[in-house]
Design brief:
six-stranded antiparallel β-sheet; 12 strands; about 280 residues; mainly beta; single chain
Length: about 280
């Protein structure tokens, strides 16, 4: 059965958007059990874009400390979006079925610019040399957390050179434990896999890809790849965040990624946190 994909960015006031995120204001602020009352830090919730996918709301957001800046960057997605997997391309770059900007404070001070969501009901190709050559053929979702504007993503070309002649990512820009990226995909970029995934005999469940510009000059996205089956288990989980030695600009960068299942609302909060200053 075809899933009707309809995406609309909504100019909601922050107060109205908070209705989409029940309980999120208190996220991460619970006092220790049996301990004394704790002072709640001066943190505010800032809403980014809101999109509708088959009438299910997807929301980008951030939690910002009034003195220390961005503490968390996240997106909240109902499980129904994964259950009713879109099986046709959307209107975003390379067929993304949703593209949502993060709040201005996130775009101005952190690595993140916007999120693009891709549905792969039939999976896609697996990197050459993998022990399981059809590892990524399972139905899954690609979450592209971009460091560049959507307008720039539209301009990314496909590679014309064969893999041996592609520019290599300098060692200081390549996260430890990651492969040199493959060819550039139009309106997306180049993908670098964690080395362990090449030797994994199982099918994809969850991992984090590092994405690069065609000329290998910068890491342009962080991409959790999550199978539909894994997401429908409705469990909390954590994935490593790729961390190069250098970035080429000063900003806040996350060192932790968690997926928190919200049983009350049958939704996931995907959260980047524990930001550090990088250059």
């Amino acid at each position: 059965m075809k899933s009707r994909v309809f995406v609309l960015k909504l100019g909601l006031a922050a107060g109205a958007a908070l209705l989409l995120l029940p309980g999120l204001l208190g996220h991460g602020q619970k006092p220790a059990q049996g301990g004394p009352p704790q002072v709640v830090p001066p943190i505010r919730l800032v809403i980014g874009d809101v999109a509708l996918v088959d009438e299910h709301r997807i929301v980008t957001w951030a939690r910002v400390h009034e003195r220390h800046g961005v503490k968390e960057v996240g997106v909240t997605i109902p499980v129904a979006v994964f259950d009713n997997m879109p099986d046709e391309d959307g209107a975003g770059p390379h067929g993304a079925f949703a593209s949502l900007a993060f709040p201005d404070v996130v775009r101005e001070t952190t690595y993140f610019n916007h999120l693009e969501l891709h549905s792969n009901p039939h999976g896609h190709e697996t990197p050459p040399g993998s022990v399981n050559p059809i590892r990524n053929s399972v139905p899954h979702f690609d979450f592209h957390f971009y460091a560049i504007d959507e307008a720039d993503v539209w301009l990314i070309p496909a590679s014309v050179l064969p893999p041996p002649l592609l520019p290599k990512v300098p060692a200081e820009l390549l996260p430890a434990g990651y492969t040199q990226p493959g060819p550039s995909i139009a309106e997306m970029g180049r993908h670098s896999s964690p080395l362990w995934s090449l030797f994994d005999p199982d099918f994809l469940s969850a991992m984090t890809i590092a994405g690069f510009l065609p000329d290998a000059s910068a890491m342009s996205f962080i991409e959790p790849m999550l199978s539909r089956e894994y997401l429908l288990e409705r469990n909390d989980f954590e994935l490593p965040v790729p961390l190069p030695e250098q970035f080429g600009r000063t900003m806040l960068y996350p060192t932790r990624f968690t997926a928190e299942y919200d049983a009350d609302n049958d939704a996931y909060h995907f959260v980047f946190s524990e930001f550090v200053i990088v250059e």
